[in-house]
Amino acid sequence: MSIGETLAEARHQAGLTIGQVSQQTRIRESIIRDIEQDDFSASGGDFYARGHIRSIAAVVGTDPVPLISAYDAEHGPPGSIRAADVFEPSRPVKIRERRSPSLSMIVVVILLAVIGFGAYRLVSHHGGSNPAAAGGATHRPTASAKPSPSPSPSPTPSPARSDVVIHLTANEDCWVLLSDSSDGAQIFTGVIPAGSSRTWTEKKAVNVRLGNPPGVVLTVDGKRQPTDVNNPVTLSFSPQAR
Q1: b vs e for 221-236, b when ≥16 Cβ sit within 10 Å of the residue's Cβ?
Q2: Burial of residue 175, with CB atoms counted within 10 A of its CB: 0-12 exposed, 13-18 middle, 19 or more buried
Q3: Left if phi > 0, otherwise alpha if psi is -120 to 50, otherwise beta: which for 135?
Q4: 181 exposed, middle or buried (CB, 10 Å; 0-12, 13-18, 19+)?
Q5: Fewest CB atoms within 10 A around its CB: which of 29, 76, 198, 234?
Q6: pLDDT tens across 56-66, in order?
């Protein structure tokens, strides 16, 4: 019998439904149904397919060793994850940063302020002058007021950068790679087991590679991120300006 037929037969003998196996293994029913039909395309790769086979075999009461050997014979022995699969995002998600006020807008505001101040000074000067005295009175020159210096623009403070807080809760086993967006340096790599969580606080832009996106709940700065895809995905996050 094939791998799927063996697991299905063991499940029937154990008197379990696919839903009950799903509850005990935390594997979605659609994936279990596909595996019983020898379809591993929705498992997220060989690494997760072997893990699903072990989990299902443990629940239905059959030996997973010959099943894993049969899987390796059909799909090849387990190997390391290719660098291209890790660092080439399949669906990169970019979060836009807030932009500081443009320099041209600041210059326009300052010029308008200077022009308005100059116009005010001109009107005040002409409105306060005395008319010429009648009867040949001697005109005395009046001292003109010194123009006030135009206000110098105050430097616009650059917006402070807050940390980016990434929190991940695993409902299923999920392989995670956290790396620096600028140079690809690894910050964390490993499997987050089902039922556990992990939090990272970073001051720079990072990439998050998820091997099993539907099996996790991912929040960034308190906002939940979309992870409803069946294939591994890479998400990019940056600290927000405040």
Answers
A1: eeeebebeeeebbbbe
A2: buried
A3: left
A4: middle
A5: 76
A6: 999 999 999 99
> Which contiguous run of DSSP H or E holds residue 19?
helix 18-25
Q: Structure tokens of 27?
A: 């594997």
DSSP 86-132: HHS-SS----PPPPPPPHHHHHHHHHHHHHHHHHHHHHHHHHTPPPP
Across-strand partners of 237?
206
pLDDT at 178: 87
* pLDDT of 72: 93
Short-list 43, 54, 55, 56, CA closest to 11? 56
Tracing tokens 């799909």 back to the chain, one arrives at: 75
Share the mean pLDDT of the chain: 80
Half-sphere exposure of 221 (CA within 13 A, CB side): 13
